Amino acid sequence: MPPTMTSPLSVSTAATPRATTTHLSIDGVSKRFGSFTALDNIALEIQEGEFVCFLGPSGCGKTTLLRTIAGLTRQSAGRLTQRGKDISMLPPQARDFGIVFQSYALFPNLTVFNNVAYGLRNRRVERARINDRVAELLALVNLTGSEAKYPAALSGGQQQRVALARALATEPGLLLLDEPLSALDARVRGHLRSQIKALQARLGVTTIMVTHDQEEALTMADRIVVMNHGVIEQVGTPAAIYHQPASAFVASFIGSMNFLEVTAQANRQALLGNTPCACLPHTIAVGQAAQLAIRPEAVALSLQARALKHQAGALNGEVVSIEFLGAFQRVTLRLPEDHQTLIADVPSRDSSKLSLYVGQLLAIHLPAEAARLYAAGSSQQ
Amino acid sequence: MMAESLIKAATKPSLESLIRLLVLLAGVALLVVGLLFPLVTMLLKSLQDRAGDFIGLANFAHYFQTPALVNSIANSLRVALMTTGVVVGLAFLCAYGITRTCMPGKRLFRMLAILPILAPSLLPAISLVYLFGNQGFLREVLAGQSIYGPIGIVMGMSFWIFPHALMLLTTALTNSDARLYEAAEALGTPKWRTFLTITLPGVRYGLISCLFVVFTLAITDFGVPKIIGGQFSVLATDVYRQVVGQQNFQMGAVVSVILLLPAVLSFIVDRWIQRRQVAQLSARAVPWQPTLSPLRDWVFALLCYAVAGAIVLVIGTAVYASLVQFWPYNLSITFEHYTFQGMADGGWGAWFNSLKLAFSVALVGTLVIFFNAWLIEKSEGFRPLRQGLHFMAMLPMAVPGMVLGLAYIFFFNQAGNPLNWLYGTMMLLVLNTLVHFYTVCHLTSVTALKQLDPEFEAVGASLKVPFWTTFYRVTLPVSLPAVLDISVYLFVNAMTTVSAVVFLYNSDTRLASVAVLHLDEAGYFASAAAMAVLIFLTSLVVKLLHAALTHVLLNNAQRWRQAT
Ligand SMILES: Nc1ncnc2c1ncn2[C@@H]1O[C@H](COP(=O)(O)OP(=O)(O)OP(=O)(O)O)[C@@H](O)[C@H]1O
Ligand SMILES: [Mg+2]
């Protein structure tokens, strides 16, 4: 039973979280615009109290999926179930959600108070109750005292928080956020990110946020849904998405990643030119062209002589350029064999030991536990 | 609780979409009954004989074999083309003066130039008779030519069409890109070449659109040729003469169909141009600012003020003529003509009827048109219905007033029509006027609505607020300036129009503009002038109130409107 608006804004729903009851299940949802398929057979379960991010490049269908959940766009096929109730055919008015749009869509002619109270006024709630509730919500988003202001008089970050308060006013079971931070400058964004996350954790409201900013998704989400071309590429925790990308697309989309052209070999092996490299288990047929993906920070560099002796799978490479990026230095190397380039991030602490300079020949170690093999050509978006 | 919310969920949304559907259907019904049915009935009438039997194109054959009638086509084309030349030429120069020079007194000129819109088209015709007629004090200027005929028609039409052309061309000339001019200057291009290669191409769509609008207004106008045309007949007066004079409805329908053609053509061209014009000005264009050039500025100032002087002269003449005892023999001032002794039931009743009509149309029309535009623009679902309504909302622009009025007679005065009781009532006049001026209001509404955040409705829906609440709490207040523009446009047009309503009144619902016509026909020229002036003053007062109200509202809204 959804909480009524008269119940106090409490941690009640959050107090019993992760009982892993399903809040929303999306079942084979597709959406076509004419002959264009914006969503292709999407299946997803979202747990009660969870914070889920839809992440993907522009045009991949994130907004379309969010609007489908809201009922603002009608799916071409598939079923949506919210708390056990089939909502596939319900109009937005009959679904239980609050939404914050990228533009915020604050009503410009209404004060902050009236914007937040907009959904409450309709419920024939006593005036005093509404006042209390609005005060409570504005306190929640740190905007106490702005009741009488108009949206135009607020900064972008403040407008965003008013929109959030307005969406939360009716205590929806599901909060939908479409790129809520993308219109703000970087500093405000970082601050609001943690604020929203804390707020969500406190209220325990199931939340879906759309973003194309991977950092946002990685820092805020309990689980990330990576989308591309209208399909889900991977669903998982931020750590899983980062460390165990399920596809070359996910690997390339999140964080930076080296892709080396290799030939697959049996037994957790690949051939880079003529050098054998160890990697995680893979399913690519022996002799097939493949891509070996490894993160720059996983690449280990060392002075040549020592490394060549001790480590199997060691390569060497010539330093082409060095970028100073504060905490680490980004070294671009050219591998002698077929002139592939490789990027390595060297922590500033270690770089002094290497005394890096352009033209230097270094030994490269690609740790097997960080090297993944993907079929060739699959990282193209 | 659960069951209750389930029931709520099941009934409430369907109620909302049911209401949406019903309102959309009502909108469609309004235009079907108020526009399509009458037009179709009229087209059918043109193919029938007096007895109502189908006779194919025989009426048209008869029309083209009657020289007196066919002549009117040439006459209409002649005066319309001449008017178009005069109006567009003058309006272009004046618009150029306003937008591209630093001439002094632009604001005053614009205010004066807009005045003719507030008067019925009968007013300039009456004034011209006083100025250039047999007893006019400027008749020598015409060098023996009679004002009754093409000269008078062209002058009178030019007067009241001028503001329309000026507004269109001012808009077109305002959209300029300074970067193009700077580039031309840097290349040492002479001024006249800059004008030919940059200015003219830049306004070509606006200019073409203006040419067609002016031509259509001129060829379909009824008021001016009726008063000052004399023996010189044009299509619009033929419709009137056939129907009111000779009771020959079939021939009236035939002339109407012919009158419909240029209007439809112009409508199609205009739509085509609107579609092309969209992408013309890039978002990065820098508006061009004129620099001082005393000679040029004063030449344009003189020209503009000559035009403004002519406008003031025409209006002033009507006012003066309505006040003098007996032109030109007894020039003492009197208010006697404002008692309208030429009219059996007194003219103030007609004026009051006009006021009633104008207020009703302004109120009902604004609500209906804006709400329909909102449903078309801002709702999901019922797509074919919404598109159909939009299409029908565009049609009235292509239908001249005379044609619409006659079509109403045919449709609503049919014996078998269940809506027959409407004929001659104020309600029918309201419907007719609303439909007549629907398109411009619809387009204004759509433009205003397109500027709003597309997610307002979605937010309302997510907060479980019914769509009509979001409409009146947010959409309407935010669009208030446009809504006020629409209502004053409807008011002024309802006050001044004569062409459609001339067929539709009865003795209880006679309007002021029709009264001008009757007073003139009956030879009470001074009273006709007085009535025309009365209409003008009423529109002027409403327009001024509107300006004041808009000012106050915008000032109040400044609290929430972005300063940028
Ligand atoms: N109403 C529509 N009609 C036709 N195509 C549409 C419509 N809405 C979305 N699309 C298309 O569907 C695809 C997915 O759109 P969507 O807005 O969901 O992308 P997105 O992932 O939110 O991208 P962004 O990050 O740019 O917001 C796009 O290619 C878009 O062009
Ligand atoms: Mg999007």
UniProtKB/TrEMBL annotation, chain A:
<dbReference type="InterPro" id="IPR017871">
    <property type="entry name" value="ABC_transporter-like_CS"/>
</dbReference>
<keyword id="KW-1003">Cell membrane</keyword>
<keyword id="KW-1278">Translocase</keyword>
<dbReference type="Pfam" id="PF08402">
    <property type="entry name" value="TOBE_2"/>
</dbReference>
<dbReference type="GO" id="GO:0043190">
    <property type="term" value="C:ATP-binding cassette (ABC) transporter complex"/>
</dbReference>
<dbReference type="InterPro" id="IPR012340">
    <property type="entry name" value="NA-bd_OB-fold"/>
</dbReference>
<dbReference type="InterPro" id="IPR008995">
    <property type="entry name" value="Mo/tungstate-bd_C_term_dom"/>
</dbReference>
<dbReference type="GO" id="GO:0015697">
    <property type="term" value="P:quaternary ammonium group transport"/>
</dbReference>
<dbReference type="InterPro" id="IPR013611">
    <property type="entry name" value="Transp-assoc_OB_typ2"/>
</dbReference>
<keyword id="KW-0472">Membrane</keyword>
<keyword id="KW-0547">Nucleotide-binding</keyword>
<protein>
    <submittedName>
        <fullName>Putative 2-aminoethylphosphonate ABC transporter ATP-binding protein</fullName>
    </submittedName>
</protein>
<dbReference type="InterPro" id="IPR003439">
    <property type="entry name" value="ABC_transporter-like_ATP-bd"/>
</dbReference>
<dbReference type="InterPro" id="IPR027417">
    <property type="entry name" value="P-loop_NTPase"/>
</dbReference>
<dbReference type="InterPro" id="IPR050093">
    <property type="entry name" value="ABC_SmlMolc_Importer"/>
</dbReference>
<dbReference type="GO" id="GO:0022857">
    <property type="term" value="F:transmembrane transporter activity"/>
</dbReference>
<dbReference type="GO" id="GO:0016887">
    <property type="term" value="F:ATP hydrolysis activity"/>
</dbReference>
<feature type="domain" description="ABC transporter">
    <location>
        <begin position="24"/>
        <end position="254"/>
    </location>
</feature>
<dbReference type="InterPro" id="IPR003593">
    <property type="entry name" value="AAA+_ATPase"/>
</dbReference>
<dbReference type="GO" id="GO:0005524">
    <property type="term" value="F:ATP binding"/>
</dbReference>
<keyword id="KW-0997">Cell inner membrane</keyword>
<dbReference type="Pfam" id="PF00005">
    <property type="entry name" value="ABC_tran"/>
</dbReference>
UniProtKB/TrEMBL annotation, chain B:
<feature type="transmembrane region" description="Helical">
    <location>
        <begin position="249"/>
        <end position="269"/>
    </location>
</feature>
<feature type="domain" description="ABC transmembrane type-1">
    <location>
        <begin position="73"/>
        <end position="270"/>
    </location>
</feature>
<feature type="transmembrane region" description="Helical">
    <location>
        <begin position="153"/>
        <end position="174"/>
    </location>
</feature>
<feature type="transmembrane region" description="Helical">
    <location>
        <begin position="388"/>
        <end position="409"/>
    </location>
</feature>
<feature type="transmembrane region" description="Helical">
    <location>
        <begin position="357"/>
        <end position="376"/>
    </location>
</feature>
<dbReference type="InterPro" id="IPR017664">
    <property type="entry name" value="AminoethylPonate_ABC_perm-1"/>
</dbReference>
<feature type="transmembrane region" description="Helical">
    <location>
        <begin position="21"/>
        <end position="44"/>
    </location>
</feature>
<feature type="transmembrane region" description="Helical">
    <location>
        <begin position="111"/>
        <end position="133"/>
    </location>
</feature>
<dbReference type="GO" id="GO:0005886">
    <property type="term" value="C:plasma membrane"/>
</dbReference>
<keyword id="KW-1133">Transmembrane helix</keyword>
<keyword id="KW-0472">Membrane</keyword>
<feature type="transmembrane region" description="Helical">
    <location>
        <begin position="79"/>
        <end position="99"/>
    </location>
</feature>
<dbReference type="InterPro" id="IPR035906">
    <property type="entry name" value="MetI-like_sf"/>
</dbReference>
<feature type="domain" description="ABC transmembrane type-1">
    <location>
        <begin position="351"/>
        <end position="546"/>
    </location>
</feature>
<comment type="similarity">
    <text>Belongs to the binding-protein-dependent transport system permease family.</text>
</comment>
<dbReference type="InterPro" id="IPR000515">
    <property type="entry name" value="MetI-like"/>
</dbReference>
<keyword id="KW-0812">Transmembrane</keyword>
<feature type="transmembrane region" description="Helical">
    <location>
        <begin position="525"/>
        <end position="554"/>
    </location>
</feature>
<feature type="transmembrane region" description="Helical">
    <location>
        <begin position="298"/>
        <end position="321"/>
    </location>
</feature>
<feature type="transmembrane region" description="Helical">
    <location>
        <begin position="195"/>
        <end position="219"/>
    </location>
</feature>
<dbReference type="GO" id="GO:0055085">
    <property type="term" value="P:transmembrane transport"/>
</dbReference>
<dbReference type="Pfam" id="PF00528">
    <property type="entry name" value="BPD_transp_1"/>
</dbReference>
